[in-house]
Amino acid sequence: VGAMQNPALRILRQTQRRIDAIFVAIGGGGLIAGIAAAVAAIKPSVRVVGIEPVGAPKLARALEAGRPVKLDHTESMADGLLPLSIGELPFAVLAPIVREAMQVSEEEIAGAVRFLFREGGLSVEPSGAVTTAALLSGRVRPTGPTVAIVSGGNVDPALFQRLVHPSTSSGQVE
Questions:
Q1: What's the CA angle centered on 86, arms 82 and 137, to 5 degrees?
Q2: Which of 1, 22, 43, 74 is the most exposed, fewest CB within 10 Å of its CB?
């Protein structure tokens, strides 16, 4: 969890502008716990929001229960976000700070991968695109400057091609 504070420390220290929110993808919870800890120490007014696939709502369930909950199964093209639960230690760190978990659909994730490629020239894996998917979906409206952590380029080349060029494939998203 400690090393996972680095992205937030860089964002908060290098950005001259006010930041209202940071959106973070949810796997086992280490990254969001580190970011939440850094935010709490440096700028507690920043809203930290966890983003996860609809097929893997482990943070949402943990926040509802007040403790990590093991899901029966998880499923998504965002395969880096599929642990069955949030870790105990990350949850202990993030629970006092993170109040929101938003889910994004497979179609929204695919659209975000495509958007990041077409608009930014970024080859991002589906797991790293969920934060962008949350913003593009319109279900969350930033109230001010917002940071979406986008990471990871470890994506199957065939899947990536289907996502960024859907008209040349069957149109099906895995």
A1: 60
A2: 43
pLDDT computed for residue 12 by the predictor: 74
b/e map 107-130, b = 16+ CB within 10 Å: ebbbbbbbbbbeeeeebbbbbbbb
Query: Can you name the residues that pair with 148 across neighbouring β-strands?
Result: 23
The pTM for the full model equals 0.88
* pLDDT (0 to 100) of residue 8: 72
The per-residue pLDDT for 169 is 53
- Tokens 């993030």, located at residue: 94
* The dihedral formed by the CA atoms of 89, 92, 94 and 97, expressed in degrees to the nearest 10: -160
Low-confidence ranges of the chain (pLDDT < 50): 171, 173-174
Distances (CA, A) of 144 to 49, 85, 136: 14, 31, 15
